[in-house]
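Dissemination and training. As part of the outreach component of the grant, students in the summer workshop were shown how a complex can be specified as a set of sequence lines and then modelled as a single object. The example used during the hands-on session is reproduced here so that future cohorts can follow it. Participants entered these lines:
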Amino acid sequence: MSAQSKLLQSFFNPRSVAVVGATKKIDKAGHVIFKNFVENKRRGVFKGEIFAVNPNEDSILGFQCYPSIVDVPGDLDLAVIVVPALVVPQIMRDAVKKKVTSAVIVSSGFGEIGNHELENEVLKIAKTGGIKVLGPNCLGIYDSRTGVDMLFLPETKVLTSGDEVIATPRPIPGDIAIVTQSGAFGVSSLDYLTGRQIGVSKFVSFGNKIDVTETEVLDYLAHDKETKVILLYVEDIRHGREFLKVAKEVTRKKPIVVLKTGRTTAGARAAASHTGALAGSDRIYDAVFAQTGVIRARDMEEFFDMAKALSMQPPASGPNVGIITDAGGPGIIAVDECELRGLNVKRFSDVTIRKFEKLKDEGKIPKFATNLNPVDVTGSATSEMLELATKILFDDPEIEGVILLGLHHVPALQEDYIDKVAKVASKCSKPIVACDIGETEMALRTRFRFDKLEIPAYSSPEDAARAMNGLVRYGAFLEKNGCFEEYLENFLRTKCKR
Amino acid sequence: MSAQSKLLQSFFNPRSVAVVGATKKIDKAGHVIFKNFVENKRRGVFKGEIFAVNPNEDSILGFQCYPSIVDVPGDLDLAVIVVPALVVPQIMRDAVKKKVTSAVIVSSGFGEIGNHELENEVLKIAKTGGIKVLGPNCLGIYDSRTGVDMLFLPETKVLTSGDEVIATPRPIPGDIAIVTQSGAFGVSSLDYLTGRQIGVSKFVSFGNKIDVTETEVLDYLAHDKETKVILLYVEDIRHGREFLKVAKEVTRKKPIVVLKTGRTTAGARAAASHTGALAGSDRIYDAVFAQTGVIRARDMEEFFDMAKALSMQPPASGPNVGIITDAGGPGIIAVDECELRGLNVKRFSDVTIRKFEKLKDEGKIPKFATNLNPVDVTGSATSEMLELATKILFDDPEIEGVILLGLHHVPALQEDYIDKVAKVASKCSKPIVACDIGETEMALRTRFRFDKLEIPAYSSPEDAARAMNGLVRYGAFLEKNGCFEEYLENFLRTKCKR
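and obtained this result:
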């Protein structure tokens, strides 16, 4: 880890934190953030000291309130600043006096609305004290392990009916880190991932990035044991050279999936008016991502789908995909999508075809099952057929990844096929992804069970193919850089531990 | 309606139907199909006569069982054939004797596994009696209005735990027709649409199409009052000239969205081994669809998303889209996707921008809201802001469609915004689609409420943009063919009636 990114530790694991702008008013961000720290401290998750800073209140949630940062006793690692923009320079001057290590400026009203001078003033003050700054105009940090939690959007809303419902869910612990320029996209991500029961290790919303950039965060996360996959949302990347250098190193250790917006002229114009980002040519970004092994997602869904695949499955050692299906049409859809994305769905080897023919002779799969790739065990599918087919494809040295379409609608297929397939897959270092189409009970159960057994499951053949494409692209990058084996070994070792 | 497609009436609304292969064995298709008719007759939905045909049983579900079709009393409109493939020719000979109008051959074991001779024999017999044949190797027909229902896949499954869960849901009544070559894809569609609470008017699985083709079904559905949008899944289209002629006429009356698979060489090979389809060049299909105004979906999700949009919203009179958002990042994503699909997200007119500036002066939207397109009312969004912005965009003659991103995570936004926006939209003939990101409670509620009010809602900005693209593409086709106004008038009239 570089000296630079070591400095970021105080953001994620501060020994002491002050919330500047902490208040008793329950609908204010300053209240919610302070309360998050208080609750995590009481639960024993957050181990550091916590302080409330507000000249207008005496105590908050049973904690004494200090009029200024300088009045806080002892050393202060982190200041979380939630006050009106115009007050921020004064707070930063106090922070310098107090020799604070780092500051998260949650407040908005800076460069994003044209107040560049104010932003520059804040940065200048921070530099005089050597304070690292995250933000401004950001949601800050959430760390599932240390209990640092600055998410202040209301967890629930009360409807006109009087019912209280979840509005912005707390993340569940997991191994995917989210690094985002857009706070709104960030909370949307948490809502999406939590609803799909996918866990988050860390969440970093860096907003206007006047100091700490996406690059520094990536460097930090490369060394974070809780994080297996990094999701990065950006509208622009400044300091491209630094990004190139760092990202290339990070992706040798763990995959980065990026959603880079402002791809079109109109999109770039919108980005410019959103964060003042100068987007630059989208082709340059494509080149940068290709060179650094950062996997660019085409859209939001692919972004999350690839992350899920990369967190659950090893990368593929090549582009040759074998497809198993119990439904002809959806099988063809999967083949098309694989080929359109540059994967190969080649005719199976003679050895493999002979194995399927043998199964036919033995009456173990239907006589009229097609077996050239896809292997289609037809509407007569049973758990045993899908299990046998999976085993045969895993044993085929020419197959580097498996897509399993086990549509549950066929009469004889029982849900135990999922566990059977997972058992076969657990003995192999090739990736497998699954698909079941449908939005009612059995389909939801099927996908959930697959996910639970760490076989990522998707609701369309195309989504499954795209997820496999993420595993293939990452594998190709690792191979090219001579670190495939090392990554795989490490991946399988951590997987066994769970 | 052509004389040809009038013949299809006996499939969808027969005065009498015989299920050949009806049986007491509850896990057999012949049982489920006969039971569907019995139940729909008892409910008063199916108005025709029903007969069970099986030489080995005396009675089924209280109905007398006839040894052969020829023994059935009175005229017979429709025979549903669910017997082993080899027996089908004999059944067809009986059907000819009985002067049956039409037959659905559910049985498989024909051309799809290379038994072309058997298939030809069946067709030849049918022709001697002038019997229209749907199938073989198909799931047949489901008609929400007449109670014709040949869906035989098990509605529920019993899990190892003993729990019984929905496996293949019954469709809910609605205005989308599904026409599919793949039965498996067909049931998947029903599962998808039902889970998303989208209703189905008719379902036609035509399988090997030895007689009735997709083209005839399209022609029939063009005149079906219950059907507003047609979803077509095909692996190949035979008789291209006829398709060209008919599809062009159908799309003047109602939109057809197609998912054509076998796009790649490997996909075409898989299609060939699935149904024996000779796929032909994908470019030719592209040209045919473009010429006939059939909207080709890029993937399964777009297929359903476009159908939902076209069933709920009028087509757009042009490609100029206005975007409203309360979240900067997702707004940019929507802009990008619109532009990448060929829609225009132009800077708003000066008049519109002045209206937004006035709202700022009046304190009705935040001072720092951006308003060039998208209009971003920021995280301070309220219901009133989104309502006002919608009104302004609907009033702008340069805006031909509106995408509303009302992400619910922002603190002050209440769910009543949905009804407010729907009220504004109901007074206008421009299309609007909505998006809220997230998979937990509030996001699901939000999208469901939008759908309920016939504003189609999507879970990602890209999906919303693609749905709008469907409305724009269909509008452009109608404009080009001089039938936009007529379609729009008809669309709005039927909408008012609901």
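Chain B touches chain A through 93 residues (CB under 8 Å). Students were then asked to discuss how this feature might be tested experimentally.
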